[in-house]
Structure formats: structure tokens, C-alpha cells
């Protein structure tokens, strides 16, 4: 285990809300954190002693940033992996490994990986451009995904019929068979260098019907014990097959026939794990640190049922952020507010989240409804 508590510097590529919450956890371990982000006003800016502005996809910027650090990690996968590989060659620890990040950056490679390793996933066809999508019209209805740079609902769209073909992406990507699923769930799993693996219990995701962003989640997911075990086993299989060190979020479908299909993965802390700060013995942020530092992994048990609601900028509002209904929401028992320090709001921008914990599931549902109806991010 690294002597992380003395003269140890952790470098994090990305200074958004995930980095901000990771820094908050790192403080408990007395870890010095350096951050690089392209936004000079990134949420992490005032949380670390060394904040640098730099392009995460630029070789020189990433390479120079990583040199003085003892270990480099990420809070977003859109980073220059060649620079990370060079740092790794020079003896620098970089987790998750750049080869893993590189594979996951491209959804076409990700899907081929599942196919080659017999990991259950939806049927797919690789496409080079809009014309190739049109040539596979018999495969519809399907989900058209960009191979690279899709994030937070961007780069994903549903093509239900030939009428939708003009919307297809004119770039390399894939067509994935549209799944008639019952639920969307996520399992977050961690693995350290010693090979120890621990998974968090599955959570249930509810997506915005248009913008493909998680509106809220409930934990634990309302699924059978058998399906929960299968979901956790599948997440463990994926991180083992990747031979990855760090934290991996595995999003899955539960089909009408009660089968588990892997949708996508993210090699970092994830929106589907925010509730773990209050609801689990160990948070996803602490677990990520434990994994990359090769510490014993923490207990992932649930302390209390929870829900997490994303605070998204209201449609039609752009400008300095205001939080309408905050006092009403904070008066509820079990409510925990997390604002991300973003000064400006815009439609559907992630501005914060609210976690609610309650032993009574009906109370939890009522509180979710109350928060969704009353707390608005406006300009």
C-alpha cells in the first residue's frame, strides 16, 4: 500500500463535480490533490492548492501535469491516453490504466469487447456514417450511438423507423438493437492492484424522456435478489475482464424476460453513485481512492434506502444560477444538498444533486416527488 499520507500528490484530470467530491474525500486521507481542467472556473478550482487550466486531450498538457504527481487518475474519460501511456512507461502510476480508458472511449470497441468476452449485451452493427446506417434500415428500431465523444446523453439517439434515418450520425458509430427493457440499473464496482473486488448494491435509474440524462435514482433497485446477484456478478466479470484498477460504473438493462444486458460502462466515479456519500458505509469516492492506492476496499453495505435527484438547469433558463424552492426542500427530514459550485446555469446542465435517505420506501417516493416539483434551477 502506498504511503499516501506523507508527501504524496494525486493528480486528477478533470475538475468538475466528480473531481470536487473526490477531493472532499481525499481530504480525509490527507492527500494533496492537483487538478487540471480546461475551464478556469471549474467546480474544483477553489478546493485544491494546485489548480491548472489545460486541455485534457492535449499530449503535452497532460504529460506535463502528470510529471510531478505520484499517481494520476481521471474524473472524465475524454483525456489524452498517449500522454498517460508515456507517464506509465516512465514509472508513473496511472489508474485506471490508459489502455482501459482508451477502450472505453470508443463505444464500438467497447461493444466488440463485450462480444469477444461473452459479456451479455444488446445485438449491434458497426456503422461508418449516415449512409451505412440507412443501409441497415432492416435493423430498426435501434439506438444510434457515436463511437467517440458521446457524454451525458449526447451522441445517443433512437431511430424507430425509416423516417428517423436523416437524424443518424454521419460519423463512425454503431446501431444497437432497441431493447424492450423493464428497468435500467447500475452497479458500481471497484478493484485494487491486489485483485480485491467489491460491488455496490444495484441502483435503479430513471432517465429524462428526451435528454437521456438520469433524472433520479433509487437505492437499492426494486429487483429480485436473484437479478441483483446476477447484476453484481456481471459488473465483477466486466472489471476482471478489463483487468482494471479503480472504480467502474456498469449500466445495465433488465429485460422483460429478467435477463441482464450490459449497456455502457464508465471507468470513474459516476452519477449513479452519488447517493453512497450518505446511504452506504463507504462512498464511491472513498472507494475509488482505496482502489487506486491499493488499500483494502471499504464496506459497500447500504445504511438506509435512498434516492438521488439530479438538479438540472430548467429549460429556457440561462445565466447566473438561482435555486427556487431551496428552503422548502431543506425542511424535509433526510435531505442532503450538494451544489457543484457552477455559477451559470443552462438548460439541463447538472448543477447539483439532492440525496434523500428514509427507512420508509413510501416516504422516500413522496419526498422524491416533492423535491422534483419544488426545487428548480433558474436564471
Structural commentary:
With 379 residues, the chain is of the alpha+beta class. The chain folds into three domains: 9-94, 3-Layer(aba) Sandwich (Rossmann fold); 123-177, ATP-grasp fold, A domain (Dna Ligase, domain 1, 2-Layer Sandwich); 181-378, 2-Layer Sandwich (D-amino Acid Aminotransferase, Chain A, domain 1). Helix content is 27%, strand content 29%. The protein has eleven helices and 22 strands. The protein has helices at 17-28, 59-66, 81-89, 98-105, 107-116, 130-135, 225-242, 276-279, 284-292, 326-330, 361-374; strands at 9-13, 32-37, 50-53, 71-74, 93-94, 124-127, 142-146, 156-159, 173-177, 181-191, 197-199, 203-207, 214-219, 246-255, 260-266, 306-312, 319-320, 322-324, 335-339, 344-345, 350-357, 376-378. Strands 10, 11, 12, 13, 14, 15, 16, 19 and 21 form a nine-stranded antiparallel beta sheet that branches. Strands 3-2-1-4-5 form a five-stranded parallel beta sheet, with helices on both faces. Helix 1 crosses helix 9 and helix 3 (81-89) packs antiparallel against helix 4 (98-105). The protein is globular, with a radius of gyration of 20 Å. The mean pLDDT is 95.
Amino acid at each position: 500500500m502506498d504511503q499516501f499520507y506523507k508527501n504524496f500528490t494525486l493528480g486528477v484530470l478533470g475538475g468538475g463535480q466528480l473531481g470536487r467530491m473526490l477531493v472532499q474525500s481525499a481530504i480525509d486521507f490527507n492527500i494533496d490533490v492537483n487538478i487540471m481542467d480546461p475551464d478556469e472556473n471549474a467546480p474544483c478550482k477553489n478546493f485544491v492548492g494546485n489548480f491548472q487550466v489545460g486541455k485534457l486531450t492535449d499530449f503535452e498538457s497532460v504529460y506535463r501535469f502528470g510529471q510531478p504527481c505520484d499517481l494520476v487518475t481521471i474524473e472524465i474519460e475524454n483525456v489524452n491516453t498517449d500522454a498517460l501511456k508515456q507517464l506509465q512507461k516512465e514509472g508513473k502510476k496511472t489508474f485506471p490504466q490508459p489502455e482501459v480508458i482508451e477502450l472505453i472511449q470508443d463505444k464500438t470497441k467497447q461493444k466488440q469487447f463485450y462480444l469477444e468476452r461473452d459479456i451479455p449485451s444488446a445485438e449491434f452493427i458497426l456503422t461508418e456514417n449516415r449512409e451505412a446506417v440507412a443501409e441497415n434500415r432492416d435493423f430498426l428500431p435501434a439506438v444510434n450511438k457515436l463511437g467517440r465523444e458521446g457524454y451525458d446523453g449526447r451522441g445517443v439517439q433512437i431511430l424507430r423507423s425509416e423516417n428517423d434515418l436523416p437524424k443518424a450520425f454521419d460519423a463512425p458509430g454503431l446501431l444497437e438493437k432497441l431493447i424492450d427493457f423493464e428497468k435500467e440499473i447500475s452497479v458500481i464496482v471497484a478493484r485494487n492492484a491486489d485483485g480485491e473486488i467489491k460491488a455496490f448494491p444495484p441502483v435503479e435509474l430513471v432517465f429524462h424522456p428526451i435528454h437521456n440524462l438520469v433524472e433520479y435514482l433509487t437505492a437499492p433497485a426494486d429487483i429480485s435478489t436473484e437479478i441483483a446477484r446476477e447484476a453484481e456478478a456481471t459488473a465483477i466479470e466486466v472489471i476482471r475482464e478489463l483487468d482494471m484498477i479503480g472504480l467502474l460504473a456498469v449500466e445495465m438493462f433488465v429485460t422483460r424476460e429478467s435477463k441482464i444486458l450490459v449497456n455502457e460502462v464508465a471507468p470513474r466515479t459516476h452519477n449513479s453513485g452519488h447517493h453512497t456519500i450518505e446511504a452506504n458505509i463507504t462512498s464511491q469516492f472513498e472507494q475509488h481512492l482505496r482502489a487506486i492506492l491499493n488499500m483494502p476496499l471499504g464496506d459497500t453495505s447500504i445504511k438506509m434506502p435512498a434516492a438521488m435527484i439530479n438538479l438540472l438547469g430548467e429549460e429556457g433558463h440561462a445565466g447566473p444560477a438561482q435555486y427556487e424552492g431551496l428552503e422548502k426542500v431543506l425542511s424535509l427530514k433526510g435531505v442532503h444538498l450538494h451544489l457543484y459550485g457552477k455559477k451559470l446555469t443552462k438548460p439541463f446542465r447538472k448543477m447539483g444533486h439532492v440525496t434523500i435517505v428514509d427507512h420508509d420506501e413510501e416516504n422516500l417516493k413522496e419526498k422524491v416527488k416533492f423535491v422534483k416539483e419544488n426545487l428548480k434551477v433558474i436564471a
